[in-house]
Amino acid sequence: MIAVVAMLALYPALTAFDLSRHSVPPGRIISTNGSMAGIDAITHPAFVAPSKATFLTLDDRVVGVIIDQSARAYPLKILTWHQVVDDSIAGNAIAITYCPLTGSAIVYDRTLGKKTLMLGTSDRLFDSNLLFFDQTSKSLWSQIKGEAIAGPLTGQRLNALPSVVTPWGVWKVYHPDTRVLNASATDVKNFANDDTARYDQSQSVPWPVSTLDNRMAPKERVLGLSINGANEAFPFTNLANAKPPVSANVGGKPVTIVFDAASKTAGAVIAGKHVAAYTGYWFAWATFHPNTTIWNSEAGTASTNANSAAVTSPAK
Predict the structure, then answer these.
(1) How far is CA 153 from CA 17, 19, 144, 245, 303, in A?
(2) Residue 265 is assigned to a structural domain of this protein
(3) In a 10 Å sphere around its CB, with 0-12 CB exposed, 13-18 middle and 19+ buried, how is residue 78 labelled?
């Protein structure tokens, strides 16, 4: 993680973004003082069969996506160095986005009205979360919100699609015909410099966030759901102690939470269908959803905004 951020500082900024139109305070859009020259989005992805994905171990985590019965796996160890993959499955234009700082992998439909957006990785952060941009308008989009927060398209939103983050060994057992995003020679070299595990184990939040909710440790993993204006976080530690499957009601909708403790894989099902949900660090979910409740198998949901504090400098 530190290596990725440090690498950005080696490059002069190549892209200027117009922040005159915005939905968040421009001062909270932080520049890493670099460009994406060394961490470009993947716009022409190449795939291999599982037998050819020798760069993966069984424990390496992947973002799994199924569209029209076509399964694809996008390894986090590749996404760490690119953060956005523009892809198309069965004629459906999608973007696989990943922010290592917030631990969030989210898949979006790249169509906006009648247009198909080509997305890139910016050198900007908002509340410690990746801002990607579309190539045409150069608007900045929040990776967690899926919303343009600055630029001509401010206020527009992309539709999130169901996906799952799970170990490669688990994904390929259930989806033996999956295609796997291939690693370039440069990606393979970068694997040796990936310190995501160290970042994950630390509780520090190196970039500023507007609020830091201390009801849980910053990097507790959660599954987050937003339904009909209601936000609820399902901590992995709580789910691990619950008898599966977990039934809940979020925003008036009955939801089934599926969780496998061994693989730390979480998902949400409504009316028998897998739905899009957030999985990532608690601090990021709570920052973007300050009124979130916390699910507890014994006591239901926790009160909102408990012990939440404003943060004006990097949290430690």
Answers:
(1) 12, 11, 17, 40, 35
(2) yes
(3) buried
What whole-number distance in Å separates Cα of residue 295 and Cα of residue 306? 14
Last-in-domain residue among 174, 190, 213: 174
CA atoms within 13 A on the CB side of 1: 18
Distance, in Å, from the CA atom of 242 to the CA atom of 246, rounded to the nearest integer, reads: 7
8 A C-beta contact, residue 229 and residue 250: no
Among 174, 196, 212, residue at a domain's last position: 174
Least confident of 22-31, 37-46, 215-224: 37-46
pTM score > 0.85 for this model? yes
- Give the pairing of strands 293-296 and 230-235: parallel
CB-based burial of residue 148 (10 Å sphere; 0-12 exposed, 13-18 middle, 19+ buried)?
buried
Q: Which residue range(s) make up the domain with 54?
A: 2-174
Per-residue b/e over 24-37, b at no fewer than 16 CB within 10 Å? beeeebeebebbbe
**Mean pLDDT, rounded, for 25-44:** 80
- pLDDT bracket for residue 32 (50, 70, 90): confident
Cis peptide before 245 (omega within 30 of 0): yes
The answer as to whether 180 is a domain residue is no
Sign of the dihedral through C-alpha 315, 131, 146, 197: negative
**Beta bridge partners of residue 259, listed in sequence order:** 266
Q: Give 56-86 pLDDT, tens digit per residue.
A: 999 999 999 999 999 999 999 999 999 999 9
Q: Domain tally for the chain?
A: 2
User: Is 231 in contact with 213 (CB distance < 8 Å)?
Assistant: no
Residues 231, 168 within the same domain: no
The answer on pLDDT for 176 being more than 90 is yes
